[in-house]
Amino acid sequence: xxxxxxxxxxxxxxxxxxxxxxxxxxxxxxxxxxxxxxxxxxxxxxxxxxxxxxxxxxxxxxxxxxxxxxxxxxxxxxxxxxxxxxxxxxxxxxxxxxxxxxxxxxxxxxxxxxxxxxxxxxxxxxxxxxxxxxxxxxxxxxxxxxxxxxxxxxxxxxxxxxxxxxxxxxxxxxxxxxxxxxxxxxxxxxxxxxxxxxxxxxxxxxxxxxxxxxxxxxxxxxxxxxxxxxxxxxxxxxxxxxx
Length: 243
What we know:
The chain has helices at residues 12-24, 35-44, 61-71, 86-94, 107-131, 169-179, 188-196, 205-219, 224-227; strands at 4-8, 28-32, 49-53, 76-81, 99-102, 134-135, 141-144, 150-152, 157-160, 163-166, 186-187, 230-233, 237-240. Helix 2 (35-44) runs parallel beside helix 3 (61-71) and helix 7 crosses helix 8 (205-219). Strand 7 and strand 8 (150-152) form a beta hairpin. The strands form three sheets. A five-stranded parallel β-sheet has the order 2-1-3-4-5, with helices on both faces. Strands 6-7-8-9-10 form a five-stranded antiparallel β-sheet, with no helix packed on it. The protein has a three-stranded antiparallel β-sheet with strand order 11-13-12. Helix content is 44%, strand content 21%. The relative contact order is 0.09.
C-alpha cells in the first residue's frame, strides 16, 4: 500500500512541485493551501507524513504541528521554511518534528527526508506495539519493557518490582527523545538543542552532553535492559536500540 503524504503550503507553485516529485516516487499525495485545511484533512484521513511550510497566513506551520500532534500523534512532520532561525529550529524539535529543511530544498533532500521519516514512523510503531506503550494526557508515553521495567515519562519515574528511581527534568527529556525515536542517531549538538534548549558548536556539544548522559546511565545501572539500549555512537552521538 502506498504511503499517505500531505503537502501543506500556501504557495501554489511550491505545493504542486512537491506533490509532483513525491507522486513520481510512487507515494499517494494530497495537498492543501493552509493550516486549517490541513487540520480538517487529517481529522478525516490517515496521513503518515506531512510536509508543512512554516510561514503561512492564518495558522502557521508550528501551530499546525501542535494540533496534529494531538489528533494524529503517529504522523511524521517535515517543516519547510525560507526563514531558518535557531529559535524556530528549537521549537520545531521540541514538537518532535522529524526534519527541518530550508527552502528551496533540493528534490533529493526532500525524498531522503521523507524516506527516513516513514522509516522512523514504522520503527516507532513496532516498538510501541511490542512494549504496550500508551499515551497519557500530557502526551508523555509510558513504556513497559520485556524484563518488567516500566518507564513513566510524565512522572519521570522508572520502576521494576521494588526498585524505583526518579529522573531530573533534563534526564527525562533526554530519555524521552531517545526512546521515542528508536534507531535514530542523534548528534551531540542535536541532543543539546532538544534537551537543554540552546544551540552550541559541534565541538562544545559533547562536553555539555557527556555529564548528563553519565548521570543518566549511573541511575539506570539497576535497569540493564534500559541502560544497554542507550548506545553511544563513536564520534557522533547516541541512539536508542530497544531489546
